[in-house]
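We include this case.
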Amino acid sequence: MKRVFVSIGGGELRNKTTAPIDAHIAALAKSRAGEGERGYALFFPTASHDSNPYFNSFRKTYTSLFDMKSDVAILTKGLMTVEHVAEKIAKANLIYVGGGDTLYLMQVWRETGVDKLVWEAYERGAVLAGLSAGAICWFDDIYTDSLVEGECAPYRGLGRIKGAGTPHYNSRPDFNRVVKEQGYPLSYAIEDDAAILFEDEAPVGALSSGGSAYRLRLDGGEIKKEKLELVK
């Protein structure tokens, strides 16, 4: 069974702008749940400081549209212990990490050890998906606006996916300059309403509900930009 990670560049669950991408994710997760099973989707709103409305938007997509059992993992506010969250992770066919403050997400996950628990679930066969902060935190290097509000800057990610990454590429064209300045040999640039499908940590193509995704390679100081083909 191949490990599957879906990195979504941006979009609004509330307005269902990523619905075609979500449909692909749900189908993958349900296939791993077994024939006739609904599938269990676990949502992490950590980057949004555990926003309950955000989870409601997730549930209205993955339960209402795709008939998966939706649950939430709360790591702040004292509502759930890490042990309780670990039990949910162990049952999940899909782990979806929402957007928000990337640095806060990584800080909380590292302090609680949840980053390792989620990655272990991914390695055993749970589909891992993330949007914006949840999409890029896994890369070696990330381009984030979490350091200074309104400004983007490079930062180190969790180091699980080789290369650098940015979400919202349609509104962050300066990422190309950063790639050159930082000397990133391999990068991924994902627009809103687009995603990259990784299998065994290697990109196999793009998913889209309107946006595009790119692989950038630095060669002799110049960027070679490749638009990823849509997954059929």
Notes: The longest strand covers residues 139-148. The chain has one domain: 4-227. The longest helix spans residues 19-33. DSSP finds seven helices and 13 strands in the chain.
